Amino acid sequence: MQLLRRRSIEATIAASDEPERHLRRSLGAWDLVVLGISVVIGAGIFSKAAMVSATQTGPAVVISFVIAGIVCALAALCYAEFASFMPVAGSAYTFSYASMGELVAWIIGWDLILEMFFAAGVVAKAWGLYFDNVLHVFGLGGVGPDGVASGVHNTISLGGGVTFDWATVLLIAVLATLLSVGTKLSTRFTGVLTAIKLGIVVLIIAVGFAYFDASKLSPFVPSSESFGTSSGHGSVWTQTLFSFFSGADLSVGGTFGILAGAGTVFFAFIGFDVVATAAEETRNPRRNVPRGIIGGLLVCTVLYILVSVALSGMATPQQLRDATPDGGESATIVTAFELQPDAPGWATKVIAVGILVGLTTVVMVLMLGLTRVVFAMSRDGLLPRGLSRTSQRFGTPVHLQVGAGVLIAAVTAFFPVDVLADMVNIGTLSAFVLVSFGVPLLRTRRRRALAAAGKADTTDSFQVPWSPALPIISGLACIWLMLQLDVETWVRFLVWLAVGFVIYFGYSYRNSQLHKNPDDIAADYREALQEAIGVEEPRR
To answer: What's the rounded Cα separation, in Å, for the pair 113 and 124?
Structure first.
């Protein structure tokens, strides 16, 4: 069995030109920056900083954000090189297929489906909760702090314990329609909401610094005892994998707390890789994709650090724990504002609206990323080929987009979605690992092909500096963050991968285009290579 058979870079690009499976190029660099900012800045910027500060790091949450941002920046460089050189849909899945083979590509594609589908479902469910909160804040109904609904609210009881979230379903229907009509139109809509969201975030930072108290930054790195936790290992399931194997103390407070906090706040950065899934729909992708990925991530990182600094100066970890019924687990930036005795009353309303707007763009871009990964896997035959047909009118996979919307709506409308953020974290980090290690492999393959053809590498695509050192460091850094996630998350992750193996060996291996049409793939490779570097056929 050829489990590591690779789809050539050139054949991958050639396949994207099939008339029935071709995506329209309509996005520029600014569109990609907006996509990146819109999906990254969501509920995480309002909640993760406060929760981690209260339960793991204290004011040192700033360092956790810096660490997570650096790791993401390294991975972003690797994504930028792949997406610039291979401007096709699929992101990490497509990159892994070309550099490490089909089985690895299936694993990461299956993993990305997990990440984006459930992340979209969880965020959409959270959108419904914040929709009720906004209605309550403005006196229109919704659900109050006591859990009592009044007036207009999102959740309708159908009897027998079954509920229906009508507003959430309406949101997903609208977003699926926008994405089906055209990616350019949807990015314009996202751009408007992102501008509003950024304005609110900047306002929150300004108001937060108005209540900044430097004395609350001490101690900057609290000990584990200050969190009410003595040294020890705790439950096997709640230990980080690093603590489980190394015997280190609980990752709360001190250096280990900062590192574990970086693994947790990483969730707030998730989404910049979705930009790479839109590479096939981008004009001049070799220039615009790297700018979009890195530009969007840079803006988000700066804002995250400013929010975490403002938060740390507004409330101590103990104050955040005392103000929440679960010891800080539900602490948000709103909690910090409520602790200020003379805070303006409009702050809560602004933050509530900001979160609602932010979640709208997050759901939209996650739906885009999900369908583009499934689209690429379908085009390669690893999933049913019918999923990769595009509309001649709109140039988008309309049936796939609508189908994904229906499934996400069903999950969010009828079921209590409770997926841990760490599950999404581990899926994303595993993708980052494969992309990072794939960069040196991709360059090696291309150098060998060009050497065999007697040609020099004249590509003008973006390249990661100091390769292979920097990509290897990126991969190792992502692995380190994965080790900071708990044992229970790892077990769930391995179970999901096991299910993926069953599907791959039961369906995908036999139906892969590489398995069914190896000669056609080889011909595509030769023709594309001849056009790219001007040779008749690579010498053996």
So the answer is: 16
Cα angle value 245/248/251 (rounded, 5°)? 110
Phi, psi of 38 (to 5 degrees): -65, -35
468 cis-preceded (ω within 30 degrees of 0): yes
Q: Of the candidates 146, 34, 71, 164, which has an alpha carbon nearest to the alpha carbon of residue 428?
A: 71
pLDDT of residue 162: 67
Element (H, E) at 313: helix 285-314
CA of 318: how far to CAs of 54, 170, 226, in Å?
Answer: 7, 40, 8
pLDDT over 90 for what percent of the chain? 11
- Pairing assessment for the beta strands 141-143 and 149-151 based on DSSP bridges: antiparallel
Q: Which of 168, 151, 50, 44 is nearest to 417 (CA)?
A: 168
- Which residue type sits at 134? V
Q: How far is CA 37 from CA 40, 282, 300, 334, 350, in A?
A: 5, 17, 6, 21, 19
Amino acid at 260: A
pLDDT in tens, 114-162: 878 878 887 888 788 778 878 877 777 655 554 555 667 777 767 766 6
Q: What's the angle, vertex CA 534, arms to CA 528 and CA 535, rounded to 5?
A: 85
The mean pLDDT of 243-251, rounded to a whole number, is 67
Kindly state the tokens that stand for 473. Answer: 């460091």
- CB count in 10 Å sphere of residue 202: 12
**Interval 451-460 mean pLDDT:** 70
With a CB cutoff of 8 Å and minimum separation 6, the contacts of 507 are: none
The closest alpha carbon to 260, from 488, 43, 480, belongs to 480
Residue positions counted in the chain: 540
How far apart are alpha carbons 387 and 32 in whole angstroms? 24
Spatial separation of the C-alpha atoms in residues 72 and 310, rounded to whole Å = 22
Tokens of 454: 């007697």
Of 329, 261, 311, 377, nearest to 45 by C-alpha is 311
Q: Could you tell me the residue ranges of all domains in the chain?
A: 9-533
Distance CA(327)–CA(64), nearest Å, equals: 20
Contact between residue 50 and residue 333 where contact means Cβ atoms under 8 Å apart:
yes
Query: CA 192 to CA 185: how far, in whole Å?
Result: 11
Tens of pLDDT, residue by residue over 200-240, are: 888 889 888 988 999 999 888 887 666 665 444 456 667 77
Strand, coil or helix: 351: helix
Residue type at 321 in one-letter notation = R
pLDDT over 50 at 529, yes or no: no
The SS3 of residue 165 is: strand
Mean pLDDT for the chain overall: 77
Rg value, the chain, Cα: 24
More confident residue, 531 or 351: 351
CATH class of the domain at 9-533: mainly alpha
**Crossing angle of helices 398-414/102-137, nearest 10°?**
50
